[in-house]
Specification:
Elements (H helix, E strand, L loop, with lengths): L4 H20 L6 H7 L5 H20 L8 H22 L4 H23 L11 H18 L2 H11 L4 H26 L4 H24 L5 H24 L1
Helix pairs in contact: 1-2, 1-3, 1-9, 2-5, 2-10, 3-8, 3-9, 4-6, 4-8, 5-10, 6-7
């Protein structure tokens, strides 16, 4: 892995965006960060570099959201995502780099499709889901989080049905993936995904991660969500399509 101009030209805006998304928009489009990095890195390198940065973002965002989460919903999410991460760790044993790209690409495109269905009225979140469905979606979020740090979109399907307030929704998301990311460190070390090769690029990007998280808190109140998400959906569709194409050719 070379820390050249191409690496920083892609990694800096990606990490900045990931910090803004995590602290300002509840990891609503978290799959984009990993998907964009996979364009220049091997999938295993991309997820390994992002994990410590996500934990830095979690700690930065946790303080202003401390104890604002919904306790029952948080327990369901933490339990389910932990189980999903264990399933994700088992899945990693069986996937090749191209299969990894395919999974990330499919997750990205599926996310855009889910959001399109929600905005089109085909997927309603007006009715609260039961607890057992919460565990199902949390498990799915844990699997996608482990593979591509993209648990936010799957988790949001359940969380939005709970009709939580904006601050409660944000805090519940943050505490869920803070705990889940700490568990993923243990699993990533066990699988040999974290090492000295990924440590240096991670360290160089920590200031960007902290700044992005701080920026997200402030942009949450100022940036029109429609513009933000529209731009991300377009780029995510293009990126997901390219990853699927590269994996299959």
């Amino acid at each position: 892995m070379e820390l050249d101009f191409t690496f920083f030209a892609v990694a800096v805006p990606v990490v900045l965006y990931a910090g803004i998304d995590k602290s300002g928009f509840g990891s609503a489009t978290s799959v984009a960060a990993t998907a964009f990095l996979v364009l220049i890195l091997e999938p295993a390198q991309a997820v390994a570099i992002m994990l410590p940065l996500l934990i830095v973002m979690d700690f930065t965002a946790l303080r202003p959201n401390w104890r604002k989460w919904d306790p029952k919903t948080a327990r369901i999410m933490v339990t389910g995502t932990a189980f999903g991460s264990l399933l994700g760790a088992g899945l990693v044993f069986w996937v090749t780099p191209d299969a990894f790209r395919l999974l990330i690409g499919v997750i990205a495109l599926a996310f855009v499709a889910i959001q399109g269905a929600r905005h089109g009225g085909l997927l309603s979140s007006a009715r609260q889901m039961s607890d057992w469905l919460g565990y199902v979606f949390a498990t799915g979020a844990g699997v996608t989080s482990f593979i591509a740090h993209s648990g936010g979109p799957v988790a949001s399907i359940y969380l939005l049905s709970k009709n939580l307030g904006k601050s409660t929704y944000q805090a519940t998301t943050i505490v869920t993936f803070w705990i889940n990311n700490l568990l993923k460190v243990v699993l990533y070390l066990w699988l040999g995904l974290l090492g000295w090769e990924t440590a240096l690029p991670t360290l160089t990007l920590i200031p960007v991660a902290i700044f992005g998280t701080w920026l997200g808190v402030h942009l949450n109140r100022r940036m029109p969500e429609k513009i933000y998400f529209t731009v991300i959906y377009v780029f995510l569709t293009l990126t997901g399509t390219k990853l699927v194409f590269d994996a299959l050719t």
